[in-house]
């Protein structure tokens, strides 16, 4: 069955004063895709994701997410999406369960918290304060929080930054499980190995614009120097003049 388009971005731009953050960006995301966004620091990744989530208004262009205008209907959109920002801060003195219950109270749509806790292996930690957990488990809690409203699309902004190798692998395992459930996942990351192994397609941002958008294998095949990895794709397309 042909998958429907769940995110459509048309000629979107965003400036901060004289600084161009995102410029004339257009792309689409299909239902059930694991869609990656890569680029150097300052390339516009976070600004782009925030506009897709309805958290920031573009200066120009149109964004539709699940058929909802992300600019004009941001409040309606939040019921259907989950968000894990790199800068997410959890209340230090709250337990894991209290944090989940609090964030779930913000939504009309709700999932079964007991089931969510079990699926994420949080049972032994649900009555512990978040600040006492390791970085990897805190990120696991943050991802669980992004799912308390049973979203159709999950947005993840560099969620594995600062995690050790095992914690990153564990986190990606959770992401792949969401994909198997039919969720659509949009993730920005500097972890090129995992992006190569797991993403269906990847958009490469440079200076606010999308310079390439394709499968990892197609992107790798387009490197004239014959690079064999997404790391080579990153170095060539995110920095070189194209």
Brief descriptors of the model:
single chain; alpha/beta; Rossmann fold; globular
Please tell me about this protein's structure:
- This protein has helices at 45-52, 74-77, 96-104, 113-119, 135-145, 165-180, 192-198, 216-221, 230-237, and strands spanning 5-16, 19-30, 34-38, 60-65, 68-69, 81-84, 153-157, 184-188, 201-206, 209-214.
- With 242 residues, the chain is α/β, with parallel strands linked by helices.
- A six-stranded mixed sheet has the order 6-7-8-3-9-10, sandwiched between helices. A four-stranded antiparallel sheet has the order 2-1-4-5.
- Helix 6 (165-180) links the parallel strand 7 (153-157) and strand 8.
- It is globular.
- It starts with a strand and ends in a 5-residue tail after the last helix.
What is the fold's blueprint, element by element?
Layout: E1 5-16, E2 19-30, E3 34-38, H1 45-52, E4 60-65, E5 68-69, H2 74-77, E6 81-84, H3 96-104, H4 113-119, H5 135-145, E7 153-157, H6 165-180, E8 184-188, H7 192-198, E9 201-206, E10 209-214, H8 216-221, H9 230-237
Parallel strand pairs: 3-8, 3-9, 6-7, 7-8
Antiparallel strand pairs: 1-2, 1-4, 4-5, 9-10
Helix pairs in contact: 5-6
């Amino acid at each position: 069955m042909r998958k429907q388009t769940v995110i459509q971005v048309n000629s979107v731009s965003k400036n901060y004063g004289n600084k161009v953050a995102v410029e004339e960006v257009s792309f689409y995301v299909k239902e059930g895709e694991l869609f990656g966004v890569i680029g150097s620091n300052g390339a516009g990744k976070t600004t782009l994701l925030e506009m897709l989530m309805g958290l920031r208004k573009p200066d120009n262009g149109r964004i539709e997410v699940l058929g909802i205008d992300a600019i004009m209907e941001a409040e309606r959109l939040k019921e259907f999406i989950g968000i894990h920002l790199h800068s997410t801060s959890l209340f230090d003195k709250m337990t894991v369960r209290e944090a989940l219950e609090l964030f779930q109270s913000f939504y009309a749509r709700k999932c079964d918290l007991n089931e969510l806790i079990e699926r994420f292996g949080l049972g032994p930690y649900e009555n512990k304060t978040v600040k006492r957990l390791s970085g990897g488990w805190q990120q696991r809690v943050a991802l669980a929080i992004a799912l308390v409203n049973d979203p159709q699309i999950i947005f993840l902004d560099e969620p594995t930054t600062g995690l050790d190798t095992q914690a990153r692998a564990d986190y990606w395992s959770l992401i792949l499980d969401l994909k198997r459930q039919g969720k659509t996942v949009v993730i920005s990351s500097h972890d090129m190995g995992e992006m190569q192994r797991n993403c269906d397609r990847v958009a490469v941002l440079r200076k606010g614009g999308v310079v390439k958008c394709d499968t990892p294998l197609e992107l790798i095949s387009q490197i004239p120097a014959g690079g064999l990895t997404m790391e080579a794709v990153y170095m060539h397309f995110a920095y070189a003049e194209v």
